[in-house]
Write a structure and sequence with these properties.
190 residues, alpha/beta, Dihydrofolate Reductase, subunit A, nine-stranded mixed β-sheet
């Protein structure tokens, strides 16, 4: 399956589940349409084995805390969790380290440290900021077999074109697919 490269630069991987029409959640934030079966659980376990750092926005962090408290998602020992927020005070809070300031400087600092890949999870607004700064190296997107018609978009607009190359496409018995893309950078699209 997926593996990370030792000795190579760490990658920032944007990963999320999305409806066919591009929504990561319903307007109220519910993600009930994204259901993991055994195949999906195996894919996610393999994915999380290749990372040791997460970056998320404030809203995603708050939702993650709620899910952890309800026991719906486990704590992940050995993983550093960062939250990018202008509202939360910088420092350590509930298993997260809140950071502010330049995204580019922060990501460059993380990439200089030895380790596995870096997961950029959830939050269309933070995704847009990373795309604006050209900080995403790979996309890992699960597409669920549903059209929502409305919701929170995975890719809210207002960022420059970014080109990617498809490196993997897998389909699963529930009708979902997993797509993996690698960022292609040329002199004209940097």
């Amino acid at each position: 399956m997926f593996s990370y490269s030792r000795g190579m630069s760490r990658k920032v991987i944007l990963g999320f589940g999305v409806s066919i029409d591009g929504y990561i959640a319903r307007r109220n934030g519910a993600m009930d349409f994204l259901v993991l079966n055994k195949e999906g659980e195996a894919v996610m376990a393999d994915f999380f084995a290749r990372i040791d750092t997460t970056i998320m926005g404030r809203k995603t962090a708050a939702a993650t805390l709620k899910l952890r408290k309800r026991g719906e998602i486990p704590e992940m020992p050995g993983i550093s969790n960062y939250v990018v927020s202008r509202r939360w005070k910088p420092g350590k809070h509930d298993g997260f380290e809140v950071v502010t300031g330049s995204l580019t400087a922060f990501v460059k600092k993380l990439k200089r440290c030895p380790g596995k890949d870096i997961y950029l999870g959830g939050g269309g607004e933070l995704c847009r900021s990373f795309l604006q700064e050209d900080l995403i190296d790979e996309l890992f997107i699960g597409v669920g077999p549903v059209l929502l018609g409305d919701g929170i978009p995975g890719f809210p607009g207002k960022f420059p074109q970014r080109d990617f190359r498809l490196t993997e496409c897998k389909s699963y018995s529930d009708g979902s697919i997993a797509l993996r893309y690698e960022r292609t950078r040329t002199k004209t699209n940097r």
